[in-house]
Amino acid sequence: MSTHPHDDELIARISRALHSREADQPDPAVVAARLQTALAHPPQATVTTLVRRGGKVVAAGAVISALAVAGAGAAAAANPYSGVARVVEDVAQSVGLEWSAMPDGYSREQYEAFWGAGYTVEDMEALADLWHLDATATKAQAGQLLLDGQMPPVAPGGAAAQPVDVDQALVDAFWAAGYTSEDVATLGELWHTEPFETKAKAGQLLLDGQTLPLD
């Protein structure tokens, strides 16, 4: 969290830029290249500001300008788990701004630790029931335990799959299309739905010939 008012102002500008365009899932490599170019050639108009407030302002201005390219900012805001979000986040932090696309209270390190350990959606649900937490808080707590070298009370893959009470054909259509448990989690965060409802909704979209909002 920033402790300097100028940093707060710059972070707010980046956040506004994130929502300035429609999300269209640009190529992370293209976004990274554009951001690197912007940082290497900051606008001359910022030189006087640089003298007063330091290089962070120049760099942040370059980041904000580049966010509009190919909808990069909006894509990062729409899906904080995407490659684009990671690129934007890394560049913002590289110029000294502690900005993250992740939900409040859930860091990218916790996200990567949880899913990287081999946990499934069923494991997450079992932990959520045990801790009486929502999905995001559960993954954050479990991820932090793993980062601290501790094991959550449910081992990776340790939760038995729960019976479903939704149309099995929709769920089957989702899995048959090659999607993963991580995709379920991403869509659930986006739609604010429970895992089984998420799979059914996604399956219906696929059967209707629509594309899921994933990278």
Please, could you describe this protein's structure?
The protein is mainly α and 215 residues long. The chain has three domains: 5-94, no CATH class; 106-162, no CATH class; 164-210, no CATH class. The chain has helices at residues 5-18, 28-40, 47-53, 55-67, 72-78, 83-94, 108-116, 121-131, 135-147, 168-176, 181-191, 195-207. Helix 2 (28-40) runs antiparallel to helix 4 (55-67), helix 8 packs across helix 9 (135-147) and helix 10 (168-176) packs across helix 12 (195-207). The longest helix has 14 residues, at 5-18. The protein is globular. Residues 19-26 and 42-58 have low confidence and may be disordered.
Distinctive features:
215 residues; mainly alpha; 3 domains; 12 helices
CA-to-CA gap between the ends? 29 Å
Backbone CA Rg: 20 Å
Beta fraction: under 5%
Q: How many structurally independent domains?
A: 3
Mean pLDDT, all residues: 71
C-alpha geometry: globular
Count the helices. How many? 12
Number of strands: 0
Helix fraction, binned, reads 55-70%
In terms of per-residue confidence, which ranges show pLDDT below 50 for 5 or more consecutive residues?
19-26, 42-58
**What is the N-to-C succession of helices and strands?**
HHHHHHHHHHHH
Helix and strand composition category: mainly alpha
Biggest sheet character: none
